[in-house]
């Protein structure tokens, strides 16, 4: 028997409801959830300030240009704004019709990365496009959400049967995740796995099936981690970073030092010491720690609340959206942005092993910025077609 999907607090279920009506108002940015946009814009502006602050000395030392990283980030931001506008105007029903060629494209690009990809620090995750490099796994995350939203919508009656319901998407996304693991990119694989299980659960797959899947796959992940000295070292470093303070634990320790140095109100941008080459890559994976040193507990709490705000607005959009396809798509896009943020903060604070995941809209990195901007664009697209008026009335 198929479980009823997630329900709206007002009597609407995730799988049912009147068809949304497209707003016909003509403008560059049709009316949608402007609160969501304000939150994302705030995080992005904070990110630009922090990328410059954290990368200027590295840029000067490496490229003899203190503006090197911020200029590239601004270039990616321009492309991200274009991706947002494109996603906010795309026909969502036509989008799902292109899933077959999109599936082939994603797998082709993932295979291409393993053969022709750019290798950085032992990982082959990027394809070179002109003078820029692009991380294909960002496209894979978007594909996961769109595919699952379409699949759950079309197969609601079969989701109670494992062979006809959960197995087909698990096989497809499992193969895709294997290719991402080979890069290797364990962090993105975890994100895709969590999103997949969450959306299948919300879509109506019985919890017993999902628990069984988790139990069956757990030994594989344990073997995959323990079979590699490098991956095993990450786990042991996480458990006791001070035992390897001069090696693998150095990053984690310096991250915690930065957060601790910030105290309640922070040292200010001019007082940040971790940009002085103590913390490796302060403008990418550990930008949250640099921000914590500059603005203290008050500042980091603000960042956490902003991402909670994205979760809040994304959930509202999902509950107000019409039909299971848009509702599953909305909550999946929300998870796609918020989950990596939680994992990044967990790593920065020492609560999770290092995974190499950027902080959405804050960390330096074009692929992440474009991918997340596309996700927010699609989410905004859904919000402007919602049953309820967006903004304060929907809050």
What do these coordinates show?
This protein is mainly α and 395 residues long. The chain has one domain. The chain contains 13 helices and three strands. The chain has helices spanning 34-63, 68-89, 92-97, 99-116, 136-154, 167-181, 186-203, 207-226, 229-239, 250-262, 287-320, 323-348, 366-383, and strands at residues 118-120, 123-129, 132-135. The protein has a three-stranded antiparallel sheet. A hairpin with a 2-residue loop joins strand 2 (123-129) and strand 3. The two termini are 34 Å apart.
What would the keywords be for this entry?
about 400 residues; mainly alpha; 13 helices; about 5% strand; globular; disordered C terminus
Structural class: mainly alpha
- Gap between N and C termini: 34 Å
Number of domains: 1
- Give, in spatial order, the strands making up the sheet with the most strands: 1-2-3
Strand fraction band?
A: under 5%
Shape: globular
The succession of helices and strands, N to C, reads: HHHHEEEHHHHHHHHH
Radius of gyration computed on alpha carbons: 21 Å
Average pLDDT works out at: 87
Q: What profile does the largest beta sheet have?
A: 3 strands, antiparallel
Number of helices: 13
Question: What is the percent of helical residues?
Answer: 55-70%
E-strand count: 3
State the oligomer. single chain
Q: Which regions are unreliable across 5 or more consecutive residues at pLDDT < 50?
A: 7-26, 389-395
EC number: 2.4.99.28
Transmembrane segments: 34-54, 74-92, 98-118, 162-180, 186-203, 210-226, 286-312, 324-343, 363-383
Protein name: peptidoglycan glycosyltransferase
Keywords: Cell cycle, Cell division, Cell membrane, Cell shape, Cell wall biogenesis/degradation, Glycosyltransferase, Membrane, Peptidoglycan synthesis, Transferase, Transmembrane, Transmembrane helix
